[in-house]
Design goal:
The protein is mainly α. It has helices at residues 4-20, 25-75. The chain is rod-shaped.
């Protein structure tokens, strides 16, 4: 799991190291990899949140249907 502060600390560290050692291509590769992994994490997080919202909405719909059924039966 990548927290925002961890990402920012890694990003800042790598940028400083790249400034100090611009010839080191491994640092640039690590920097690119950091952003790729952060992007993957963010997408997975957003998709997970989407699934939770869909489940919540489905449960709310089912609850309302059940409540409506109970109301109909109590009126009858």
């Amino acid at each position: 799991k990548m927290y925002y502060n961890d990402f920012e600390n890694c990003r800042a560290f790598l940028e400083t190291q790249i400034d100090k050692n611009p010839e080191n291509s491994d640092l640039v590769k690590a920097y690119v990899s950091l952003f790729e992994n952060k992007t993957k994490f963010d997408i997975a997080y957003i998709n997970g949140d989407k699934e939770l919202r869909q489940d919540f909405e489905k449960n709310q719909t089912e609850r309302i249907k059940s409540y409506d059924e109970i109301t109909k039966k109590s009126i009858s």
